User: Fold this.
Amino acid sequence: MSEILPMQEPVCVSDFEKYAEKFLPKNAWDYFSSGANACVSLKENRRAFDRLRIRPRILRDVSSINMSTTILGEKIDFPICVAPTAMQKMAHSDGEVATTKAAAALKTCMILSSWSTSSIEDVGNASSGLKWFQLYVYKDQSVTVDLIERAEAAGFKAIVMTVDTPYLGRRYADVRNQFALPSHLELGNYTKKYATAVKSDKDSGLASFVATLINSSLTWKIIPWLKSVTKLPIVLKGILTAEDAKLAVSYGVDGILVSNHGARQLDFVPATVEALPEVISAVNGECEVYVDGGIRYGSDVFKALALGARAVFVGRPIVWGLAYKGEAGVVSVLNILKDEFHLAMGLAGCSSIDGISKIMVAHETHYSKL
Assistant:
């Protein structure tokens, strides 16, 4: 798409969203923005953050603020990372290559989607920044193994297996649009047979793609198998309950990404930040826990870390930044969130990540009896 820049530079994440809605093609905008069914969980992902109150401490020395942390032993400059988002060339011609360059420039982590429109190799070669690879498990096991081996060879540092997609959620906008990947694009990580398989039909082309290729018979036994084919750390993406968090720990995973898939799979599931505390409690420090979904302000990052997340991942805002100005747009989005988080830490009285504690966040009902 051509870059038609607005008169005024964006000052917050929602400014990028407004731009993307105006200038992205309808097929692409509806794909990126929509949730499952009635979009109740999509709205709740945002509203749940709004229901949380920060309890700031005063008269603390915040003249120097350190936002750095580590994830799976790798240092990042601030705990705001890039979630896996498919088909980014629908937002900008540079797609995932622009995104990885932006994440590397700010010294944070990017997760590359299996369904990227740039190849694993192109993204791996584009930057030396920290990258993880998001994985679906396919009916054809050789496809899965091939993706893992290519990610390892390209320097990716972890495998993030999505566990909430035995079938694709019902997304009304994609059905109405008979969603298809634009004809000039293809999925970057597959042979020609699969790369152009997201085609329009009477439903959603992506739903048909998933039904054809994704293994819906998976059980927890997939974890030992995955460990047998890679030495990379394994993160499970899509856990929302204490029960599954405990199982994940028992199977020896290295991390959990609390996620409802951007509210695009099963509607009426909890908002991710509301599911986060029970997962943190169940894990009991035995693996790292991250969260995505609904993060639009630096104060959201503060709230998530106060509830126990080690880092947060953002998806849609990255796409909006791409639509605005490619790599520079993604840098802008990340910088805005980073600066807002820095300010939230300072105003809440925290000079380092370790100073952000659970007692600094309360649900709005805490104050309802006043």
